[in-house]
Amino acid sequence: MLTKLYATRVSGPDRVRYQAVNRTVANAGWAVGGLAAAAALGLGTSTAYQALLAGDALSFLGAALLTVRCGEPPSPTRTVVTSKDPLPTTKPAKPWRDRTYLAYVATETALCLHDAVFKVGLPLWIVHGSNAPHGLAPLLLVLNNVLVVALQVPLARFGATTTAARALLLPLAAFFALGGVAMALSSAGGTPIATGCLTAAAVSFTMAEMLYATVSWELSVALAPATAQGAYLGVHGLAQSVQRSVGPLAVTAAIATGPAGWTVFGATIAVTCLIQHRLVRDRLAGPSLSVPPVTVSEH
């Protein structure tokens, strides 16, 4: 939520690209961190583990020092008032009373299930539902990171406006459906077929992950009133929180059901994409609310 607010305040209409760069760097960091952890595990000494923890602590210190340098950006919409000016008479909108936004957040919970696929679904399905080698699981996670680092920023330009972001929900639906079908087909053959289908599934779900991120960055801000973006983005963050709880259950149910379960899994999320595409249409037809005015009080 804080990243979205900062991107909105600093980058304005370029916030989607800003978020894409931020996510690319984060994925590169995860990859580097994974390699460092693997090296520490390989060495297996207390010195290696201590160095790993010290490096992690230093990274947070570096981030803190960079944050200290950040300031309030110039804004033509900022209004400066004094203590003698009357307080605003209008109260900010409350997200809990905004049925459209709440319905949008509910659909977001389903759309971010790609996270559970990579953390739970793929590893378990490789072991229990296919003839693919067990070592394929970490390789697909590496593939996911590499694709995000390479493609997230280029793909962001396709969702730079609210209209473009909404349009991306259609290919997003297709990638979710293809991912589910590829997972289902991976159980139908030997090792080569299973490996190929699972790789195709990983690519499809990674594409879905990147498109979803692009769409979500724009719509979550564009659908929020200018005077209550913090509260609205806080509610939007609940989608990820709920997904972390129900996501493992959803992919476990797909695994237990077998190939048909994965087909239904992908199709259900694809239908949810279409529902969201229709849900936000009327709200986005109005004027953009994504760049809020800021009032600064001087005492």
TrEMBL record:
The keyword Cell membrane applies. Keywords: Cell membrane, Membrane, Transmembrane, Transmembrane helix, Transport. PANTHER family: MULTIDRUG RESISTANCE PROTEIN MDTH (PTHR23517:SF2), RESISTANCE PROTEIN MDTM, PUTATIVE-RELATED-RELATED (PTHR23517). It is found in: Cell membrane. It comes from the Bacteria. This is MFS transporter. InterPro entries: MFS_trans_sf, MFS_Transporters. The keyword Cell membrane applies. GO terms for cellular component: plasma membrane. The chain crosses the membrane at residues 25-43, 132-155, 167-187, 193-212, 219-239, 251-275. Its main location: membrane. It is a multi-pass membrane protein.
